Amino acid sequence: MLAKIEHGPLMDRVYRHQRHFYDATRKYYLLGRDPMIAGLTPPEKGSILEIGCGTGRNLVLAGEAYPNTSLYGIDISNEMLATATKKIDAAGLDERAHLAYADAADFDPEALFGRRQFDRIFISYAVSMIPQWQEVIREAVSHLTPGGALHIVDFGDLKDLPGFTRTVLYKWLEWYHVTPRNNLFDVAGMVAAKTGCTNEARRLYRGFAWISVIRRKK
């Protein structure tokens, strides 16, 4: 419980200043985000929720890629939500995008947005920063429509990278409170099996990035 309470203020401290140049720097190493968005393929007039929406960068791209969808985003950092609101407004998506402050491990989308389920939910480079990330995955799956899918992109196990590069990268990520979840595919598989879903696993860039998809049956 303590980790859940403290995580929001921690993220505000981490991103209070970084949010202003976050997107300009992260594009060089948060790999796999755009392939993940391209793979969402929601139904016509469907709904898309991003958990840990950060600066709103991904929601804007999803909104542009799927112009007839409704967009939703939650984050535990008020600092990031402030930036996301400005970015969404600037993109002209404010009429169909809705943001809210929430803890991804335990949130009520009906209270926040007036809906209980979503056609697509995605989590981009957030499970590696969320202490109770496995609960977040289970919670997200519970909010999928029949035929809906949860898409996750994050750091992989990095095992195919050179040893020195891997060591330096792990240390650098630690400075930013980032912990690659090397058992992400295993956890996704277990969640899928327990909920009657199917799951897909995709390794990119020599294991630098992983994409996991948990899909509910129709």
Automatic annotation (TrEMBL):
<feature type="domain" description="Methyltransferase">
    <location>
        <begin position="48"/>
        <end position="148"/>
    </location>
</feature>
<dbReference type="InterPro" id="IPR050508">
    <property type="entry name" value="Methyltransf_Superfamily"/>
</dbReference>
<keyword id="KW-0489">Methyltransferase</keyword>
<dbReference type="GO" id="GO:0032259">
    <property type="term" value="P:methylation"/>
</dbReference>
<dbReference type="InterPro" id="IPR041698">
    <property type="entry name" value="Methyltransf_25"/>
</dbReference>
<protein>
    <submittedName>
        <fullName>S-adenosylmethionine-diacylgycerolhomoserine-N-methyltransferase</fullName>
    </submittedName>
</protein>
<keyword id="KW-0808">Transferase</keyword>
<dbReference type="Pfam" id="PF13649">
    <property type="entry name" value="Methyltransf_25"/>
</dbReference>
<dbReference type="InterPro" id="IPR029063">
    <property type="entry name" value="SAM-dependent_MTases_sf"/>
</dbReference>
<dbReference type="GO" id="GO:0008168">
    <property type="term" value="F:methyltransferase activity"/>
</dbReference>
